[in-house]
Amino acid sequence: MDNRFFEKPVLNSPWQKAKQAVDKLTQILAEALRGELVPTEAELARQEGRPYETAEELLAGIREEKDNPCRNLKTGKRIRKMKLSK
After folding, report:
1. In whole angstroms, how far apart are CA 67 and each of 9, 10, 26, 54, 73?
2. Structural domain includes residue 86
3. Which of 18, 36, 40, 79 could potentially form a cystine with 31 if both were Cys, beta carbons 3.0 to 4.6 Å apart?
4. Which residues on neighbouring strands pair with residue 71, listed in sequence order?
5. Count of the separate structural domains present in the chain
6. 60: part of which helix (H) or strand (E)?
7. Domain housing 84
8. Higher-confidence residue: 73 or 29?
9. Contacts for 69 with CB less than 8 Å, ≥ 6 apart
10. What are the helix and strand counts (H, E) for the chain?
């Protein structure tokens, strides 16, 4: 019988190196998706002492702009809206 099948695997085999690389990339991707790699806009705004809009406030502003026609602040004339694709 061939003893190769019963030997311990080599710790630095190409497969193990590839698995380690995939595991590391998976960890980095998970951190990125959780927003842990860079500071958030809220954190930056607090550090700089400036206000920021939460996502809810931003969406409310977008909805308001969508519902109300845009007007030029100087002339009061309606500004033509661009149509956004759905």
Report:
1. 65, 65, 42, 20, 17
2. yes
3. 36
4. 78
5. 1
6. helix 55-67
7. 34-86
8. 29
9. 78, 79, 81
10. 3, 0
